[in-house]
Amino acid sequence: MALEGMSDHELRQRFEMLKGVEHHKNELILELLSRVDSLDESYQQMALDHQRETQFNREGQLRERKLQDELRKLKAFMNRDPFVLVLVDGDGMIFEDDFIHKGEIGGKEAAAMLWNGIKDHIHDRLPDIPSDCRIVTRIYANMKGLSEVCWKAGLVEKVGLIEEFYRGFTGSKILFDFIDVGPGKDRADEKINELFKLHLGNFHCQHIFFGCSHDNGYARLLEQYTEPMITDRITLLEGVPFEKELYAMKAKYSTVKFENIFRSTKINVYNQPLYQASQSLPQYPMQVSSNETTSPPLPNGYQSPYQPIIGTSTPSPAPSSQSAMNPKAPTWASTATSAIQIVSPPATPTPTNSSLASSTDVPRNRQGQRVDPPTTYDKEEVDRVRKMKLCNVHFLRGDCGYDPCTHSHSKKLSKTEMAALRTVARMVPCRQGSACDDPKCMYGHRCPISVPGKKDCLFGDNCKFERDLHGLDLNIVRTTKIGKK
Questions:
Q1: 20 to 30 A from 340, CA-CA: which of 34, 78, 323, 361?
Q2: Checking DSSP bridges between strand 205-211 and strand 83-89, what pairing results, if any?
Q3: What pTM was estimated for this model as a whole?
């Protein structure tokens, strides 16, 4: 449009229009510049963040590398001295007679066989354990009590042979030790329990072989650990068959029985060899009043206060009837160590004949079972006498064969105390049961609280007396006479 033909008004309108366009252009330019500034600021922030992340990653990588180095060193340290622990209660886990008879040489042979047995078991059953793993063996027992009982049972010709055996055992391997805990109840148990707990958390200790099959008390220790990652690190060694409570829980653990290394039967003080029997008490011939045939008495006509298990037959893997009826019955070791004194007792007077069992008659019922007459007693008096640590054999039989004896012979007892002592002795089951023919036997031949005709009592399965010693007929129909030739 030519300007000459436009009026002033039209020119002004065009100017205003151009002026608005310029304004919009400037606003757009301002907005673009603002956007650029914002993006630049974001870029700078992201650049800083990226730089910081890069630095953090670099530091993290360095830290990770350092930690991996430390972990490798720690693993190398943990694997540097691997070992397995063989922990044995030597009061009940006893080596085979063939080893003990050889003294020091037998100790070395037993150590070698045990080492080989453990090594083979690790190779066959525990492949995760390093092949260079060392074997540490600790056997805890009361040397004096163990030696005396083995001698009295006729296992050795002299008391010192047990010490020679363990001297050879300890000297054969650097990491094999026998530790004499000395006299005192539960001393071996307490040390074994603490050593077990200590090594169970020791990362150098790869596995524990635990020899405790003879003692229900260790069930209290084992029942604390039920997690597979812990129980998988424990193998139970079997010598004598597992006692009732241990037998019930052994399914949670691996078990192993090394044949021809540990005894599979408990110590038997009967059937002693002639050299042992000749040094003990005299034997007495038997006369049976009812013309019945009976077997000759056991050596010495005398029952050991250690109350060992009788018989030499091979035990079955299931718990015996005795252990089933009496899961808390003490072993010979717990009895032998319960009252041993460091100082020998003074010279002991012999009780008068009036204080001993003088009858030669053994009363029996229609089934031929020995009948113990009923007794009455004062519980407080019985508890008091029990704590006096008296020698039952000395006061009730007069023929204690232990020199020195670990229980008192020197006290002078009243008639009431003698009656209480007889009651205390009656509470211990006789291992001959109702077939016992010893007229001077002081132990119990029936459960004292059972009722005739009932095969149980107040204590149920925890009673110390076997089931067949409950509910006996108390009517006496005949007697077995014992007399000297």
A1: 323
A2: parallel
A3: 0.50
